[in-house]
Design brief:
479 residues, alpha/beta, Rossmann fold, 3 domains, 6% strand, PNTB-like, NADH_DH_b, transmembrane, NADP binding, NAD
């Protein structure tokens, strides 16, 4: 039976890897998710078979826990709107880290403070080290992800958020101290892990508390502009903590699955940081932006904002050869993806070529805009990544920016003193004409001015994105 379980694990790992490969493209992403889910189901079945004798009494509890997880997990996953999907991902990711922290605590309690092991045996050392590592990283991931969820959901008290952002340097010092304390406690627990000795459970509780505070203090000062990278980083940490828990439990499935998540999350984090031209340490220790786009006015000195109407916008686009749509989080908030698709269909019926420019960090998580547009049946081939579309802006008649801000800010390219200088952006300002749809002149996540809004070729169409696009549609139908 043991060999049969290992065969199931190999099948499960293959599904994980093949499913992950599917996530590299929007056309295969859904199938990739389904294959990975099948792999996880196989891994769970294999684990249940493996422990059928050792933990036979707890089988009912295990099945009950699985049932509770399904009951609590499926409804929000099905009902959550795409605009809130980043929050859901952050929350689910945090629960994974919290689970690992609880596993570490359970291992500590069941072994009476790591006092009933012989440390000259390698598996036992692995249990102690894996549990302590999982406790630290899992707790950091849980509390950090919880803060990310509150930030993205915009329910975190703004005064609290502003306090942490404005005192980021102070909390950087506190984080170093907390990390040293956490490592010191872990070393003390490990040294005391001897037969008949061990430590009190309060030492493990202290380790979890210190690590949890560290997770809070790391994420709270990070501004909203960096939140997509933070989510990816926390996801990688959860994967590593799961792998550590797998070592402690001697569970091959957890080790491999955790390492896959940790490795892929690390690669994605690096790619996201590169897309913002920022190093990961700079994001963790020196973030910019205070969150939700509620900063000052996004006007730039030396220019005036020119307002336009739906009728003028419709005329400009109807007589263009090519129109590029630049979606941002404002489009997601307004749930305007279906309306934008309808507008694009009308333009294409008039012979206008329509493309969509997707910045790697547009929205609030990697791929957010791609999934949102795919939900509205936008053709995958029409969605162009930044590197593929940037060369086309200078020969584009009209670019319509819907709810995007920082990813179109030319200050990143032209102003060495800007906090986002060097960050790769969509070259929207090179278009012959730019129409920006925004509710107001509020700034983006970075909280800085955007000279694009006062550029000579730019006009602003104020209002809710969905209603504004609907007005443009009516005007297009009238032409």
């Amino acid at each position: 039976m043991t060999y049969f379980v290992y065969i199931l694990y190999i099948v499960a790992f293959s599904c994980f890897i093949y499913g992950l490969m599917g996530l590299t493209g929007p056309k295969t992403a859904v199938r990739g998710n389904q294959i990975a889910a099948v792999g996880m189901a196989i891994a769970i079945i294999g684990t249940l078979l493996l422990i059928r004798n050792t933990y036979a009494i707890n089988w009912v509890l295990i099945i009950g826990g699985l049932a509770i997880g399904v009951i609590l997990g499926v409804p929000p996953a099905k009902k959550t709107k795409m605009t809130a999907m980043p929050q859901l991902v952050a929350l689910f990711n945090g629960l994974g880290g919290g689970t690992v922290a609880l596993i570490a605590l359970a291992e500590f309690i069941s072994s009476k403070g790591f006092s009933d092991f012989r440390l000259d045996q390698q598996p036992t050392v692995a249990v102690v080290v894996g549990s302590l590592f999982g406790a630290i990283i899992g707790s950091i991931s849980f509390w950090g992800s919880l803060v990310a969820f509150l930030k993205l959901q915009e329910v975190l008290n703004k005064k609290v958020e502003k306090f942490f952002v404005s005192n980021a340097r102070l909390f950087q010092v506190a984080n170093i101290v907390l990390l040293i304390v956490a490592v010191a406690i872990a070393i003390y627990i490990g040294v005391k892990a001897k037969p008949g000795e061990g430590t009190s459970v309060w030492w493990m509780v202290a380790l979890l508390v210190v690590s949890g505070v560290l997770g809070l203090f790391v994420v709270l000062p990070i501004g909203g502009a960096d939140m997509p990278v933070v989510i990816s980083l926390l996801n990688a940490l959860t994967g590593l903590s799961a792998a550590a828990a797998g070592i402690a439990l001697n569970n091959t499935a957890m080790i491999v699955a955790g390492m896959i998540v940790g490795a892929s999350g690390t690669i994605l984090t690096n790619l996201m940081a590169t897309a913002m031209n920022r190093s990961i340490p700079a994001i963790v220790f020196g973030s910019f932006g205070g969150g939700g786009g509620g900063g000052g006015a996004a006007t730039a000195t030396g220019g005036a904002v020119k307002a336009t109407s739906a009728a003028d916008a419709a005329i400009q686009m109807a007589y263009a050869n090519q129109v590029i749509v630049v979606p941002g989080y404002g489009l997601a908030v307004a749930q305007a993806q279906h309306t934008v698709k309808e507008m694009a269909d009308l333009l294409e019926d008039k012979g206008v070529e329509v493309k969509y420019a997707i910045h790697p960090v547009a929205g609030r998580m990697p791929g957010h805009m791609n999934v949102l547009l795919a939900e509205a049946d936008v053709a995958y081939d029409a969605m162009k990544e930044m590197d593929d579309i940037n060369g086309e802006f200078n020969r584009t008649d009209v670019t319509i920016v819907i709810g995007a801000n920082d990813v179109t800010n030319p200050a990143a390219r032209n102003d060495p003193g800007s906090p986002i200088h060097g960050m790769p952006i969509l070259n929207v300002d090179q278009s012959r004409s730019v129409i920006v749809l925004k509710r107001s002149m509020s700034s983006g996540y970075a909280g800085i001015d955007n000279p694009l809004f006062t550029a000579e070729q730019t006009s602003m169409l104020f209002g809710d994105a969905k209603k504004s696009v609907a007005s443009v549609i009516e005007e297009l139908k009238a032409l």
